[in-house]
Amino acid sequence: MSFYINEKTGADEAGAGTQEKPFQTPAFALYSAETDAEPKLFVFKEADNEYQEISASALKKARKGCDGLKKKAAKAKEQELKKQQQQADNAAKQMAALNIKIEEDKALPAAQKARINQSYSKVGERVKVSGWIHRLRSNKKVVFIVLRDGSGFLQSVLTGDLAIAQQTLDLTIESTVTLYGTVTKVPEGKSAPGGVELVVDYYEIVGLAPSGDDAFTNKIAEGADPSLLLDQRHLTLRGETLSAVMKVRASLMKSIRRVFEEESLTEVTPPCMVQTQVEGGSTLFKLDYYGEEAYLTQSSQLYLETCLPALGDVYCIQESFRAEKSHTRRHLSEYTHIEAELAFLTFDDLLDHIERVICKTVQYILEDPVAGPLVKQLNPDFVAPQYPFKRLEYKDAIEWLKEHGIKNEEGEEFQFGDDIAEAAERKMTDTIGVPILLTKFPAEIKSFYMPRCKDDNRVTESVDVLMPTVGEITGGSMRINTEEELLAGFKREGIDPKAYYWFIDQRKYGTCPHGGYGLGTERILAWLCDRFTVRDCSLYPRFSGRCKP
Ligand code: 4AD
């Protein structure tokens, strides 16, 4: 047999080895011979324009090349066979998996319903726990699920038929399931929430979450744009960090209510739809109230003042609304305002009370078995504030800012009378590094209701509590308690006193020295949980450009 080779015009796979359709390489020509006898090879020589028998050295090289081709072909065949085998195995496994019926073994002791945090103390017992699949991992024979139900996380393990059943292979993150199994202690040296693991013997699917493009992890990819994450807030809330902040938030509410109880304050719920302003007209949200102009409340202070003669010292936890144009990390359009009002006290009494409320509230949060560890986790360096706080008068703060070369909003040296805006306030607070009660602000930069100090008519009995990393978390003051002085305050701020008749009446029908304050819930949380912005401390934050979902 003879084969013809033309290295220029020939082709190995498509060639036939004839003079008309020559092969390209001598190695392929040898490889394509189907008999044991080695074919004769003729190679086209361009110089002589004819086919000539292959030289001995070229033939030797061709034989080597032919061996290589044979080995390659054998390997490819082997792989193909393996692949076919695997496909057959997979198909068999899938059939088997499809045929596995997950059924409860009725011979087992009845499972007791438990929340995850209750299951931690049920070592050795058979329980049933419902929740969301927070994490899902499998190797060939074992499936690990971390279940979440809001009360905690439960590491769970599925083995045997449970692990290979098609139903299990189809599970997705955020699907809801009820797991049945025995609570076991995790082995020495291993850790899991609550120190336990659920060895699952049966489970039911309550609702399967989507897979593929719509899968939960695609919806809220890590590192996604904050605005996209806010569009998916209903899903991001399920994350470990945000849900931890919300739990600390719940504990803050509970703890501060406990402190108010200890301080003998009564809780009230003033209206949110009002026709008066408290903190300046520029941040009022207006609304059409059956044809009349009304506003969403900026602060419940004025209403709290009216409760003093009826109920004594009072507080409320209520949403306040501010049409803040500025996009800062500590301003929201709607925030949860914790406000208190106290009668028959001095400015110093008020400052002492504020310190006590803040310190005790933080103490109770840290002592809370749920929130305490979460604060540690979110803010490992957090140091609980100690009273008394550093007290700094506004006039001394201005000197401090000057000495430290910190400029005002116009980029000039601070002057008495300047507002200490966010950037300068934060720099000062962070440099001093401890909680500060900043007191006695000039009347002109504060609200109409603040009384002037007896010893310095330029300034008022007012206070801001400043915390490192966030700045102002609380604003408060004594209140003007004579009608005449209050009317002068309205005049200074250009407010028509007509709508405030009920507030003015407090000064007519038995006036008293009184004062109060408002705490920004989200700001306290940003400080306590070390969050960059108050937006991370609100369930569904509202700020300009965002009123959904
Ligand atoms: O200093 P502010 O404006 O004081 C009042 O509203 C008083 N009438 C309260 C009172 O005496 N009852 O607000 C009080 C606190 C601030 O210290 C801050 O923590 C928070 O409310 N706050 C805001 N939090 C988030 N977003 C905003 N836009 C806020 N404005 C004020």
TrEMBL record:
Give the similarity note.
Belongs to the class-II aminoacyl-tRNA synthetase family.
Q: Which UniProt keywords apply?
A: Aminoacyl-tRNA synthetase, ATP-binding, Coiled coil, Cytoplasm, Ligase, Nucleotide-binding, Protein biosynthesis
- Report residue spans for region: Disordered: 1-20
Gene Ontology MF term list: ligase activity
Query: Which InterPro entries does the entry link to?
Result: Aa-tRNA-synt_II (IPR004364), aa-tRNA-synth_II (IPR006195), aa-tRNA-synth_II/BPL/LPL (IPR045864), Asn-tRNA-ligase (IPR004522), AsnRS_N (IPR048952), Asp/Asn-tRNA-synth_IIb (IPR002312), NA-bd_OB-fold (IPR012340), NA-bd_OB_tRNA (IPR004365)
Q: What is this protein called?
A: asparagine--tRNA ligase
Q: Which residues form the Aminoacyl-transfer RNA synthetases class-II family profile domain?
A: 246-541
Any idea of its EC number?
A: 6.1.1.22
Q: NCBIfam families from the xrefs? A: asnS
Signal sequence, start to end: none
Q: What reactions does this protein catalyze?
A: tRNA(Asn) + L-asparagine + ATP = L-asparaginyl-tRNA(Asn) + AMP + diphosphate + H(+)
State whether keyword Aminoacyl-tRNA synthetase applies: yes
Listed SUPFAM superfamilies: Class II aaRS and biotin synthetases, Nucleic acid-binding proteins
Name any one Pfam family assigned in the record. AsnRS_N
PANTHER family in the record, alphabetically? ASPARAGINE--TRNA LIGASE, CYTOPLASMIC (PTHR22594:SF16), ASPARTYL/LYSYL-TRNA SYNTHETASE (PTHR22594)
Subcellular location as annotated:
Cytoplasm
Kindly indicate whether the keyword Aminoacyl-tRNA synthetase belongs to this entry.
Answer: yes
Coiled-coil spans in chain: 59-108
